[in-house]
Design brief:
Blueprint (H helix, E strand, L loop, with lengths): L1 E5 L3 H12 L3 E5 L3 H8 L10 H8 L4 E4 L10 E4 L14 H13 L7 E5 L7 H13 L6 E5 L9 H6 L4 E4 L3 H17 L4 E4 L1 H31 L4 H8 L21 H14 L5 H22 L8 E5 L15 H10 L3 E5 L4 H7 L4 E2 L3 H5 L4 E4 L4 H4 L12 E4 L11 E4 L3
Parallel strand pairs: 1-2, 1-4, 2-3, 4-5, 5-6, 7-8, 9-10, 9-12, 10-11, 12-13, 13-14
The structure holds nicotinamide-adenine-dinucleotide (NAD).
Nicotinamide-adenine-dinucleotide binds next to helix 1 and helix 4.
Length: 428
């Protein structure tokens, strides 16, 4: 098939490269010329394991990138993978996606064969009939050969390529059997190698599945953190408790690690967006609001643990880990941000270290010290807060001896308790 993918960011680049790898002819379209040139050079505009290899193999052959929408009408199906960031009130900002939807419609205005436009971006259910379908159809002068579908994406940063290639489900939200069939044709080569259930539904239910999925996972972590905070107050180890409840197969052992909370580009944005969408129809989503509240609380609990031993004012405090999770330089909504904010507001001198994310964080906090290594950050420190569970932190040992006051608050349970340090686990 010939597939056009609009937007070559995290999701767009991954799916374009993977579709090419499945044997499709792919045109990746982005307004950013630099991204387009990078793709045509066979390189990924983002850091993601396996992506450079796929691009090197397929760029210039089955995969071409361009800033023009000209290839859209010649393709069999178009995927929209444009960012849907948060507005200040938590709702999603559809402006970039709406513009791309209109431009896609415009490119299809004269197409006489049926054409499927699939929304890959994460969008709230009501926004499909209220905003996106009208944008596509008005761009296309109401050409009724165009049908809109929804195929939410569940890949995770850090394992995007394998998540795409080995999904645990595919969700096809369509309005006709023809469109469902077309999506089956797109994913047929993937399903030949990897057996995944395909959920066939309508576009709005498909978009709700994506939000429910992320809201459930974020709520699971917040519930585990809430219970973990109670464990800490009772002087109990939350991990011992969670290991036991994970044996109940209705609960499952996954996502039971309590700590400083969730961040990144998806959970915060998606949970806040579905809360805002629910409130817009006068529903008060109490559990989801609590999910966000508990998550917002965890960084402060780290500070409280620290302050039970050290006054942060004028103290040197090491912050170990700045990325929102290990193996990425992505700091979007990283828990390190509220941790550093809270330290600074209490007058601490922050010495931060991350193996890859320091550069990114230096734009946000230009005035703190960025150490070259965890050892450098710990040297002379009056306390240390462990925010990201990079593997290298679990190997720290004698480095703690160089601290002025060896108070270590572990937000990820990745530091071994050892003699000579005052160790505080966040929920244990
Ligand atoms: P992104 O911001 O990385 O990429 C969006 C791209 O679209 C950018 O390269 C931008 O230049 C391009 N663009 C903007 N306007 C355009 C236009 N009019 N025409 C062509 N290109 C245009 O976004 P992302 O992280 O890839 O996310 C895309 C969507 O997928 C979002 O809705 C997100 O919530 C969802 N999603 C993201 C992830 C993730 O891990 N990043 C996972 C699942 C779902």
């Amino acid at each position: 098939m010939h597939i056009t993918v609009i937007g070559s960011g995290y999701v767009g680049t991954t799916i374009a490269a993977c579709f090419a790898d499945l044997g499709h002819e792919v045109t990746a379209i982005d307004i950013d010329e630099e991204i387009v040139n990078t793709l045509n050079d066979g390189r990924a505009p983002i850091t993601e394991p396996g992506l450079d290899d796929l691009l090197e193999t397929h760029a210039g052959d089955r995969l071409t990138a361009t800033t023009s929408y000209d290839a859209v009408p010649d393709s069999d199906v178009t995927f929209l993978a444009i960012g849907t960031p948060s507005n200040n009130d938590g709702s999603i900002d559809l402006s970039a996606l709406e513009a791309a939807a209109e431009a896609t419609g415009d490119a299809l205005a004269n197409k006489t064969d049926r054409h499927l436009v699939v929304i890959k971006s994460t969008v709230t259910p009501p926004s499909i009939p209220a905003t996106l379908e009208p944008a596509i159809h008005s761009g296309a002068n109401e050409n009724d050969a165009i049908e809109v579908g929804m195929n939410p994406e569940f890949l995770r940063e850090g394992s995007a390529v394998t998540d795409f290639q080995q999904p645990d489900k595919l969700v096809f939200g369509t309005q006709s059997e023809w469109a469902t069939e077309r999506l089956h044709n797109v994913f047929e080569p993937l399903l030949e190698h990897h057996d995944a259930p395909v959920v066939e539904t309508d576009p709005e239910t498909a978009s709700m599945i994506k939000y429910a999925n992320n809201a459930f996972l974020a709520s699971k972590i917040s519930l585990v953190n809430d219970l973990g905070n109670i464990c800490k107050e009772f002087d109990l180890d939350a991990y011992e408790v969670m290991d036991a409840i994970g044996l109940d197969d209705r609960i499952s052992e996954r996502f039971l690690r309590s700590g400083v909370g969730w961040g990144g580009s998806c959970f915060p944005k998606d949970v806040n967006a579905i809360i805002a969408a629910a409130q817009a129809v006068d529903y008060d989503p109490a559990v989801l609001e609590g999910t966000v509240e508990v998550n917002d609380r965890q960084p402060n609990r780290m500070l409280e643990c620290l302050m039970s031993h050290v006054n942060p004012e004028d103290a040197r405090i090491a912050v170990l880990g700045l990325a929102f999770k290990p193996n990425t330089d992505d700091i979007r909504n990283s828990r390190a941000i509220p941790v550093i904010d809270a330290l600074q507001s209490r007058g601490a001198n922050v010495a931060a270290y991350d193996p890859v994310a320091a550069d990114e964080m230096s734009h946000k906090f230009p005035d703190i010290e960025y150490a070259e290594s965890a050892a450098d950050a710990l040297e002379g420190a009056d306390g240390a807060l462990v925010v990201t569970d990079w593997d290298e932190f679990s190997e720290l040992d004698e480095e703690f001896d160089a601290m002025a006051t060896p108070v270590v608050v572990d937000g990820r349970r990745c530091i071994e308790r050892r003699n000579g340090i005052i160790y505080e686990g966040l929920t244990w």
